[in-house]
Amino acid sequence: MEAYTLADQEKLYAKVQETLAKAKTNPISEIRKKKSEEDVLFLEQLPVQGFSKKLHQYSKLPFQANGLDILQINVGYLCNQVCNHCHVNAGPSRRELMSVETMKHCLAAIDLGGFSTVDLTGGAPEIHPDFKWFVQEIAKRNVKIIVRSNLTILTFAKEYEYLPLFFKEHKIEVVASMPCYTLENVDKQRGEGVFDASIKGLQLLNSIGYGKEKDLNLHLVYNPGGPSLPGSQEGLEKDYKRMLKENFDIVFNQLYTITNMPISRFLNDLKTQNKVEEYMNLLVDNFNLSAVENVMCRDTISVRWDGTIYDCDFNQMLHLPVLDKQLQNIKDFNAEKLKNRTISLKNHCYGCTAGAGSSCQGVIS
C-alpha cells in the first residue's frame, strides 16, 4: 500500500506514465496464474464444507445462470493506487490493458446480448488510453453505463480533469470506493492521503449535480477493514449520509456494502494474520440460502482485459473462466449458451452468500 501525499502522488503519476508506455504488450503472467491456482487449491483444502457440497445439500446443483443482464468489463489492472483490500491486485505497475480490438468484440456482444447494463471496472478504468472512445461507443447503445471509480483519479492529473463533465454528459452512473467516512480508516486501507483526495472527488461530482439530479447517480462502496462481515447496509448508509453531509456537505444516492473476498491481497493478509480458517468459518457459518438465488453470476458475465469470459470478476482474479471452452472469449460471444451456462463454483463463493449476501450492487437478500 502506497501513500497518497502530493510527493507520492507525483511518483505514482510518473509510474503510471511509465507503465502506459509499456502496456498492452505484457502476456498473462504465468507466475500470477500459478499463484491464483495455488490460492484456489488452498481454499478448497481447508477443513470446511465445500461450497458445491453445500449447494448439493439444498438441491441447488447444477447451479446455472438465468439470463444475461449485466456485462462487466475489466479494461485493465493499471491503477493510480495500491489498496490492501484490492481483489484485483491493481496498481501503477500492472501492464494489462484491453486492446481496441477486444473492446470492439465487447461492443458487438452488447449489440447481440440484450444487456441492460455495461459495468466498466479496472484498476482505474479511466486511466485506459481508449476509455473515452470506448464509453462514447457504448453510449450509442441503449444501455446504462456504470463506471467504478476510485475517486482519486478525478484529481490525479490534468488529463483526467475532463472526467466529471464527461460522466455527466453520458449520464454515467458512478460507483465509488469509500470504505469509511473517517480519514483514519480510509487511509489505513487505501494509503495516506487517499481520504482527502476522495473527498475532493466527491465534492467535485456533487458540484455538477451527481447525487442530486435525476439520472446522475452516485453510489459509494463500503467493505470492512478486516476479517469481518459488513454491518447493516441500511444502517451504514444512514451513518455515511449523516457524517459526510455534516463534515463535508457531501450527498450521494446509495451505499453498497460488499464482503471482502478471501482472494488476492486480502487472502495474503489473512495468511499473514493466520486468520484464513477463522474467516472462512465465519463465511460458512453465515451461509444464507436466500442469497444464493440472487448472486451476481446468475445474470452477469465478466470480461477480462484480454477478452476471456468469467462468471464473475472474483473468478476472473482466480483464473477460473466459464466452464464451456467454446464460450471462453468475447470474440466467440454466444448469448443463448451463456445465459443458460453452468457456473463455476469454488469455496471463495461463500463470500457472496454470507450474511445478507454480497454483489457488486451491495446486499442481495
Question: Could you give a quick summary of the protein structure above?
Answer:
With 365 residues, the chain is an alpha/beta fold. It is built from 15 helices and eight strands.
Protein model, in words:
The chain has 365 residues and is of the alpha/beta class. It has a single domain, classed as TIM Barrel (Alpha-Beta Barrel), CATH 3.20.20. Helix content is 39%, strand content 10%. The protein has helices at residues 6-22, 30-44, 51-57, 100-113, 131-139, 163-169, 183-190, 194-207, 233-248, 264-273, 276-285, 289-292, 313-317, 335-338, 350-353; strands at 70-74, 117-121, 144-149, 173-177, 218-222, 254-257, 300-303, 309-310. An eight-stranded mixed beta sheet has the order 6-5-4-3-2-1-7-8. It is globular and about 50 Å long. The mean pLDDT is 93.
